Amino acid sequence: MKHLILFCIALLALVSGRRWAAADAAQSPITDIGARLELFVDRQLVESTRGVTFELQRPLAAEKVLTFDKPWEGAFAGYCTVIKDGAVYRLYYRGLPVAKADGSESETTCYAESRDGIHWIKPDLGLFEVMGTRQNNVILANSAPLSHNFSPLLDTRPGVVATERFKALAGTSRSGLFAFVSADGIRWHQFSEQPVMTKGAFDSQNLAFWSESEGQYVCYLRVFKTIGGKGVRWVARATSKDFLHWSEPVEMSFGDAPPEHLYTNQTHPYFRAPHIYLGIAARFMPGRQVLSDAQARAVNVDPGYFKDISDSVLLSSRGGTRYDRMFLEALIKPEIGWENWTSRTNYPALNIVPTGQHEMSFYVQKNYGQPTHHLQRYTLRTDGLVAARAPYTGGELVTKPLKFAGKKLLLNFATSAAGGVRVEIQDAAGRPLPGFALTDAVELIGNEIERAVAWRAGEDVSALAGQAVRLRFVMKDAELFSYRFR
Fold it and tell me: What angle do CA 153, 361, 253 make, to 5 degrees?
């Protein structure tokens, strides 16, 4: 009898626990994702995992796309921005043949363009005379200090006038940041007679964009934060409704990540999910020297530019003043060769852009401070920065409650020949919905950027649109990169 009583008490506790857990789950905040694409660069929509890990992907080094070999460009060219404008890719960067103080008269802003993001030309624009010639690709000159860090954007704000389709910020701590506008991205003029922002260090790219999700312009700018009595290169954020009047900058937070020098932050809306801001930032390690004097002479690096090193790391944000650093490991490590271990090399350009049906690219400066200074392309599969990965033994991932709009659930995934992905749709409390249970799911096998999930009754999930549901991904030897409803 005693054993029976104990068993009944345990059973009652188990049932009550499940009921309480279900009630808590039903009360979890519900995120309305509509038809937007979701990545795994953070855990914002992840409730739980079992056997699934999140893995930072390794970009593939592609070709050298541009050499900074013009007399006005040189070893200290930098602060690159790549913009995809319809069928044209536009590249902007500072020209600086010899290292000088920030904002010197030697700095110019240069331009190149491409039709595929791979093959680039430097057009002879004839806009400014530089070093005795107008046969150059310079779009801004004789305007110190505004060519130090000229950072343009393609303005996606609804209703923006054609003459202001491109905008830019530029300046130093001494001058403040000035606003520029352009109709074609080549011919620019100042949008403001006075600086639009004066509080900040500004001594790197200070970039801005129109935030579709926040309904305002957002600027991520360089500041210094005092930690342990020392200045650490940090990021602050300001906002504006008109690009001319900006809020006071507020320092970004990085959660529990240790403080590190982030020389450039390169934050931008991801082109397939603009509510998620991605940053491939330059992590700078001052005083961390790899090369000896003899090795530095062998690669012909400037004597002042081999006693620090850097790499690239991934940041993400969904707006506000917090970055998520899900991975502290490098996204881009310095490659083999002494030339890759000099100061301020491995600095990424601003923006990730699509360069193929299944491919996206970003660009990284190589051999800074050397005669061989150039820009190199790196590639990833579309959405392929982070994968939710399950091993051969299997695993699963369950989302937090969400609402969606659409008729189909689309996945970007890859499996082995032995692997697969199945999806169960649950109610907010975690109970399988009729017709969408795991036993109803059709296993997905393959490697595709976009495939619809199916169950025995088909692919249509429109009957569940607008309801609070959870997605349960059950995987074996597979990676999941993104999902969306459509």
Answer: 60
Strand partners, 359: 356, 381
* pLDDT for res 406: 98
Average pLDDT across the chain, whole number? 94
| Distance in angstroms (rounded) separating the CA atoms of residues 134 and 131 | 9
Q: Each residue of 379-429: pLDDT tens digit?
A: 999 999 999 999 999 999 999 999 999 999 999 999 999 999 999 999 999
- Residue 58 in 3-state DSSP? coil
pLDDT at 19 over 80: no
Strand pairing category for 402-404 and 31-34 = parallel
Spatial distance between the Cα atoms of 456 and 424, rounded to a whole number of angstroms: 12
* H/E stretch holding 168: strand 166-170
What pTM does this model have? Answer: 0.93
Q: Which helix (H) or strand (E) holds 78?
A: strand 78-85
23 band by pLDDT with thresholds 50, 70 and 90: very low
Question: What dihedral do alpha carbons 434, 440, 443, 449 form, nearest 10°?
Answer: -30
Give the whole-angstrom CA distance, residue 265 versus residue 254: 12
What's the gap between Cα 141 and its chain centre?
A: 30
Q: What is the DSSP string of 194-260?
A: S-SB-SS---S--EEEEETTTTEEEEEEEEEEEETTEEEEEEEEEEESSSSSBPPPEE-B-TTPPP-
Find tokens 């006038």 and name the residue.
Answer: 161
Confirm if 200 and 221 have CB atoms less than 8 A apart: yes
CA-wise closest residue to 191 among 200, 182, 203:
182
Quick count: other Cβ atoms within 10 Å of Cβ 221? Answer: 26
CA-nearest of 202, 199, 317 to 252 is 317
In order of 36, 39, 66, 237, 268, the CA distances from 213 in angstroms are: 11, 16, 34, 16, 12
Question: CA-CA distance, 480 to 478, in Å (whole number)?
Answer: 7
Cα distance between residue 152 and residue 80, in whole Å: 10
| Residues 325-353, mean pLDDT to the nearest whole number | 97
pLDDT digits (tens, 9 = 90+) for 250-288: 999 999 999 999 999 999 999 999 999 999 999 999 999
Give the integer Cα–Cα distance in Å for 279 and 265: 6
CA angle 451–455–461, rounded 5-degree value: 75
Q: Does the pLDDT at position 3 exceed 80?
A: no
